[in-house]
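Format notes (please read before filing issues)

Several people have asked whether sequences and structure tokens are stored in separate files. They are not. Every record keeps both together, in the order shown below: the sequence lines, then the token lines. Line labels are part of the format and must not be stripped during preprocessing.
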Amino acid sequence: MTQTQYLDRPGGRIAYDDSGGSGSLVIAAPGMGDTRAVYRHVRAPLVEAGFRFVTMDLRGMGESTAHWNDLSDGGVASDYLALIDELDAGPAVLVGSSLACGSAVIAATQAPESVAGLAVIGPFVRQVPQKWWQKAVFATMLAPPWGRSAWVSYYRTNMYPGAKPPDHDEYVAELSRNLAEKGRMASLRSLASNTHVEAGQVLTQVTQPTVVVMGTADPDFPDPVGEARELAEILSAELLLVDGSGHYPQADRPEIVAPAIIDLVRRTNPPPVEPPPG
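Then the structure lines:
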């Protein structure tokens, strides 16, 4: 991974890395309880395609400041937009995973001139109905003192029901170490309470080219295929269903996800047409 850089924001700093270059800007953010390194296996293909690929940690996660007063979807959306401004290379294609997808949607509707397209992976972009006992079980799972070990165990197995990335064990071990830092689990619990109502209210206002990516075995949705198809219809988006993949197809099936992102970026910013000779 390239050297960590920091974006100063009201209330803290956002950690990010930047491949550099003058190509089309792509900014990717992970979901809750995860770090920007979840995109480690799509980085090389996107950079090789000529793009400037930037990944950022969420508020409270990874190398970003641990404690924040605002951990809402809208707060993360403002970080996307602030990073575009900081890099002065927009408009950008925004890539979101899980919770960050709602933030990407909000950013795209708040500042459409800054956002060229969206790739939403395992997207939480509206409120997903849950029974009261499901909410209670999840809240109990994240509670101290067992919250970190329970989340890491859930992440290791349930979120990757099919093929695992070759470096899965090492990645999960590093994730566990990160969440052991003071304040990280408190931020995770706060992020987990986001309802994504704000994103759901503006879904129909998205005008940018979009691709919806969903693993067919994603455990976070009662009907992942049905949810993905509905969202693709609402967003007038391309749909990519990754057979057998879980919640992070960019990590376990990068050979399928990377080309979809590359195609999206090229559609939003096609290369200039060379004039005919003579």
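For reference, the curators noted about this record: The beta strands are 5-9, 12-18, 25-29, 52-56, 92-97, 115-121, 210-215, 238-242. The CA atoms of residues 144 and 185 lie 9 Å apart.
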